[in-house]
Write a structure and sequence with these properties.
- By secondary structure, the protein is of the alpha/beta class.
- 50% of the residues lie in helices and 16% in strands.
- The chain is built from 14 helices and eleven strands.
- The strands form two sheets. It has an eight-stranded parallel β-barrel, surrounded by nine helices. It has a two-stranded antiparallel sheet with strand order 5-6.
- A hairpin with a 4-residue loop joins strand 5 and strand 6.
- The longest helix is centred in the last third of the chain and has 26 residues.
- The radius of gyration is 26 Å and the shape is globular.
């Protein structure tokens, strides 16, 4: 079994009833909780409008989170390249690479919310072109090149980073890939990772598999070796001790989450004519809402449908209240992740070996003890 890393994709999603200060602090507490639970990574999003996803600068959030955590790797999930001058962004990310001592990762994309782009005068039709133009420059800068390039939205003259990356040859990078093939093509061209978002229904998994094929083809054409360990798949999950408890837990926030995707976000999670959103998400394979065993079966289905990937990324969604949300991640870490990380097998083999030879070993131990008793008795008898 391929070792499967664990992580989250933190947009975040906070409904209108929340105090934003407390919501952001809870996001920070979540990363500390995941750090203690040995989650491998967390990717933090960039959004500027819509009211629900309230982190505007993943770099700022990561810098603070790095001071409060010890092990978890922290990525921009994702920074919207068309919104930033590529030289300035690359320079900020290298600084973050230094400040985190190599725990920072750079996830990039074209920008997911059309209203973000419109507010700064960007035509949505230009977003993917701009992403590619920016990514080309960032890759060159991070390998130490001096870049002179002019486009209709940036003008660089002898732009060169003043610090080499802390992580050599450069920090880990990934491109978001959803419905459009642009992300898969860009990631493959540069030989960097791919972050697959956009659902995990059977149809969505076929789309992700096609995107992987595009990625692998582009990687090979550009002299890179495609590696499924660099592929991350984002999905929706909430687990509890029983299916009934999991369903009850998500009543807290599932409807508000689905409303946001229907009213504001680019693509709805659940069709508007569906009345039982919970049942639709479970039946369609869009989400796992159940027990640890259900989560294992769900991830197995995703691996089979995709052909294999390197990390399972949970979309952090606040469907349950804070206590049950933390409990979900604890159950994942205790009972689900070990199944995909081969962390229990040696223990099980050791236990089984000891159990299967128990009578033999107990007999040998008893014989050894009796021999000592007999030896002492013989020594005392000789002394008398």
């Amino acid at each position: 079994m391929t070792y499967l890393r664990s992580g989250i994709f933190l947009a975040p999603f906070h409904d209108m009833t929340e105090n934003p200060i407390l919501a952001l602090e809870r996001d920070m507490e979540l990363l500390q909780h995941l750090d203690r639970l040995n989650y491998h990574e967390a990717w933090i999003g960039e959004h500027h409008s819509g009211g629900f996803e309230i982190i505007a600068s993943p770099e700022v959030f990561i810098a603070a989170a790095a001071e409060r955590t010890r092990h978890i790797r922290l990525g921009t999930g994702v920074v919207s390249l068309p919104y930033h001058n590529p030289f300035m962004l690359a320079d900020r990310m290298v600084q973050l690479d230094y400040q985190t001592r190599g725990r920072a990762m750079m996830g990039v994309g074209p920008g997911s919310l059309v209203h973000d782009a419109k507010k700064i005068g960007i035509d949505p039709a230009d977003q993917r072109r701009r992403m590619n133009e920016s990514l080309d420059v960032i890759i060159e800068l991070m390998r130490g090149d001096s870049v002179t390039r002019k486009s209709d939205w940036f003008d660089l003259t002898d732009a060169r980073l003043q610090l080499p990356p802390y992580t050599r040859p450069r920090m880990e990078m990934a491109v978001a890939a959803s419905r459009s093939p642009a992300g898969a093509l860009a990631a493959g061209r540069h030989g960097i990772g791919m972050l697959s978002i956009g659902g995990t229904s059977d149809d969505a998994m076929k789309h992700h598999a096609r995107n992987w094929d595009l990625y692998a083809e582009q990687a090979t054409l550009n002299g890179h070796v495609p590696d499924r360990r660099n592929w991350r798949l984002v999905t929706l999950m909430h687990i509890a001790e029983t299916r009934e408890k999991a369903r009850e837990n998500v009543r807290h926030g599932l409807d508000r989450f689905c409303d946001y995707f229907q009213d504001v976000a680019t693509f709805p999670i659940v069709p508007s004519d569906i009345t039982d959103r919970y049942q639709y998400m479970v039946d369609s394979g869009a989400a796992c809402i159940g027990t640890p065993d259900d989560a294992i079966a769900f991830i197995n289905r995703l691996q089979k449908g995709s052909g294999g990937f390197g990390a399972i990324m949970e979309l952090a969604q606040n469907w349950a209240d804070w206590a049950q949300t933390k409990r979900h991640y604890e159950l994942m870490a205790r009972y689900v992740h070990p199944h995909f990380q081969a962390s229990r097998e040696w223990r099980i083999e050791s236990y089984d070996h000891a159990r299967d030879h128990h009578a033999e070993y107990i007999g040998q131990s008893s014989a050894a003890v009796q021999a000592e008793i007999d030896r002492l008795a013989a020594k005392r008898a000789a002394a008398e």
